[in-house]
């Protein structure tokens, strides 16, 4: 686990995920050794019925960073995936750095808002967000958000033919993989075609500050009022699980970023953790 030293400022998910990766169907984990020491790692998860690989967990130990080792293991993993899973046509990955203008147009951009707080102030923060919603007069503030607990119901939403165009959410051919993640889903329940869907992960431990919790919220849709309601709903549903320090990462469409940042401001104990940044999402041939 020492390979995660200084990764993401203590936010690395790898120490928590690694052992489950060892038994996950469709998962490949490649490690590199120099002599007898582990020096790098990369993983890929095959999805979309065997046609796509999601690349995750690229790591190099501190002494090997900047020595081109990452490129070596990436090329090896690409070749290994092609050999073991010959039907893979697409490689999917994210990155947080700027790839330059010549490559940037190939990426889909997601805005990321991060919050930092402790369990003592979390309840009052969530209550404050609820109060802001009550006084809001936005047009969609009365639309209900309902939990989706049944896999068949989730399947009905995700296989909707025009879902992607409405919510920027890919269609659902990976329900078995999603089910393994133990996600908590909410959907715009006003009837007809939903204008918003979202989910959060269970809180999980990270190395930050000697030991903290983190969980992630993904928001799909561009309706600001529904995004605010979804955010407060997710935070409210997880507050009983929070102990000690917690970091929350919220992934959203770019158009929501300024409004949600303002929505979360004004609290003494739960505050923005890092400056807003963009996560770059790329699909390409492996």
TrEMBL record:
InterPro entries named in the record: Hisat_C
Domain Histidine N-acetyltransferase C-terminal residue range list: 173-253
PANTHER family from the UniProt entry: LOC100145250 PROTEIN, N-ACETYLTRANSFERASE 16,-LIKE
Protein name as catalogued: Histidine N-acetyltransferase C-terminal domain-containing protein
């Amino acid at each position: 686990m020492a390979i995660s030293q200084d990764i993401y400022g203590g936010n690395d998910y790898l120490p928590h995920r690694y052992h489950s990766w060892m038994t996950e169907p469709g998962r490949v984990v490649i490690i590199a050794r120099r002599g007898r020491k582990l020096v790098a790692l990369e993983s890929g998860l095959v999805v979309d019925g065997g046609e796509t690989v999601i690349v995750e967990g690229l790591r190099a130990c501190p002494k090997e960073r900047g020595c081109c080792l990452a490129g070596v293991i990436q090329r090896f993993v690409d070749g290994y995936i092609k050999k073991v899973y010959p039907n893979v046509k697409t490689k999917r990955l994210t990155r947080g750095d700027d790839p330059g203008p010549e490559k940037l147009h190939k990426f889909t951009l997601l805005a990321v808002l991060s919050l930092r707080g402790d369990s003592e102030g979390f309840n009052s923060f969530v209550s404050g967000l609820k109060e802001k919603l009550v006084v809001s007069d936005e047009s969609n503030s009365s639309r209900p958000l309902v939990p989706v607990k049944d896999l068949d119901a989730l399947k009905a939403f995700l296989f909707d033919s025009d879902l992607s165009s409405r919510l920027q959410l890919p269609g659902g051919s990976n329900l078995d993989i999603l089910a393994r993640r133990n996600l908590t889903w909410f959907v715009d329940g006003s009837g007809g075609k939903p204008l918003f869907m979202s989910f959060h992960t269970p809180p999980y431990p990270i190395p930050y500050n000697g030991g903290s919790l983190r969980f992630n919220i993904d928001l799909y849709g561009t309706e600001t009022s529904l995004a605010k309601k979804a955010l407060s709903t997710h935070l409210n549903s997880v507050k009983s699980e929070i102990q000690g320090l917690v970091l929350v990462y919220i992934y959203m469409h770019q158009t929501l970023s300024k409004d949600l940042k303002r929505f979360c401001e004004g609290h003494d104990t739960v505050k923005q953790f890092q400056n807003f940044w963009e996560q770059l999402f790329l699909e390409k041939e492996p």
